[in-house]
Design a protein that fits this description.
This protein folds into two domains: 233 residues, Aldehyde Dehydrogenase, Chain A, domain 1 (3-Layer(aba) Sandwich); 183 residues, Aldehyde Dehydrogenase, Chain A, domain 2 (3-Layer(aba) Sandwich), CATH 3.40.309. The strands form seven sheets. Strands 17-18-19-15-14-21-22 form a seven-stranded mixed β-sheet, sandwiched between helices. A six-stranded mixed β-sheet has the order 11-10-9-12-13-24, with helices on both faces. Strands 2-6-5 form a three-stranded mixed β-sheet, with no helix packed on it. The relative contact order is 0.15. It is of the alpha/beta class. Helix 2 packs antiparallel against helix 5. Bound molecules: ligand TXE.
Amino acid sequence: MTDTLRDPATSSDIRRYQHFIDGKPGSGSGEVIARYSPVSGQVVAEYAAGTEADIDAAVLAARNAFNSGVWSDLPGLARGRALNRLASVLRNHVDELIALDAAEVGTPQRVARGPVEAGIGQIDFAASLASTLHGEIHTNLGPDFTGLLVREPLGVVGLIVPWNFPTLILCQKLGYALAAGCTAVVKPSEFTSGSAVRVAELALEAGIPEGVVNVVTGYGNPVGQRLAEHPDVDLVSFTGSTATGQRVLESSKSNLKRVSLELGGKAAQIVFADADLDDAVEGVLFAAIHNQGECCVAGARLLVEDSVADEFLDRLAKRAGDLRLGGPDDEADLGALIHPDHMRKVLDYINVGVQEGASIRAGGGQLDHPEYAQGCFVQPTILDNVTPTDRVFQEEIFGPVVTVTRFSGADEAIELANVVEYGLGNTVWTKNIDKALTVTRRLHSGTVWVNTTIDGSPQLTFGGYKASGYGREMGKAGFEEYTQIKTIQIRTGTRVGKFGLLS
Ligand code: TXE
């Protein structure tokens, strides 16, 4: 492992954030949550610790803004122009957003840059969709009838965002909700709330009216929970763990609000012997360690065809050993895990893997570095000889840990890939197009990459199969999640007294 750790305290400034409700900052109860950097152990930010009353105030502001029509009644082109302005303002602040996400997540800025820029790209694309919202007209119902299917914005939406990609995941929800004409209450993670507050402030600066974007910071309980159960919220879009997703679903029953859940994953990287192995080594490595493995589509399980497995693993282990760990300002490949408890959970999983019979091919423990005694750094770890019934094969670890299982032929690879409860994203590495397409069609996941990985474009819809959730984000399908269809049937003829289901 190469050490490039240099500057433990990347910023001595503590950034302080309040809620943002109805276009104004507010401190609520006055209680705060301190965010300790997982790199240095120092406080890097303080967020208002929200209460149920803060959520109630934010939902009221969002409801009033929605009902006033100040946003939802704008022509789609005008909403699109406002979203274009928002993208432009965010771009002017891109370095600030990268710096604060990196400091709060504990990741190098060079790792945070791509996801933040991709988040702004989501707003660009959502802007282009705003004017495309339209319905259907039916004139084939007989001469007396005209039917209209009108797509309308859902109303007030609650957006619950996790800590791994704060700006990106916020934008991939907020952009589409706003494009559809909804108003929003955002609940960012209690570990990484800074960028959500800044995005809301910048939305106002871009001309998006007061009350359209509101943010309440605070803990999952009470803030997230109140948002999920609030009777005047029409949809909750949640990204996070499967267990919390189930709680959100429970809370949503109060008013049968719609729920969109983007939950965990246990993605397979399937490497066939006929793959471009140079490419596959780099892709598998990237998928395993991107954002230090704190990624719902992290390539957590390497499935490698047995004829090339030994060679592939030698190369992968060598590359893993070259990786640099570091803080926000370092030229590093991966950073610290989100907090000490999470680091302990990841280290425990490594131990469980070894007890289950895995052998460690790279890494295997916490990074031991005197300057970073407080740092939550886990070495990129390869666990070899993992079997499908092992916990480390089945459960989401959410750290820089990849398990290795060998297979023989496409059928076995598919069976291994599908045997987990999750179904978010899998990757296939092969130069054989027939094989690629056949395998792709048989994988049970919302996304399958072929010869690339953890890639994406706002046009390409994203979401889970199985326990990875339901509902879709991004693309046209993601946009339509924030709408509902109204049917209007008009009789224009003279069929006096004849009603009902006439054919
Ligand atoms: O997530 P939570 P945690 C997975 C990953 C990780 C595990 C736990 O495996 O190790 O989840 O992380 C809010 N009602 N992912 O505990 O609890 C919370 O405040 C409403 C995968 O941090 O799911 C935060 O804003 N909201 C994942 C958000 O839910 C509640 C990303 C996510 O937190 C709530 C993150 C409640 N009762 C973790 N309780 C992905 N899919 O990318 C908490 N929250």
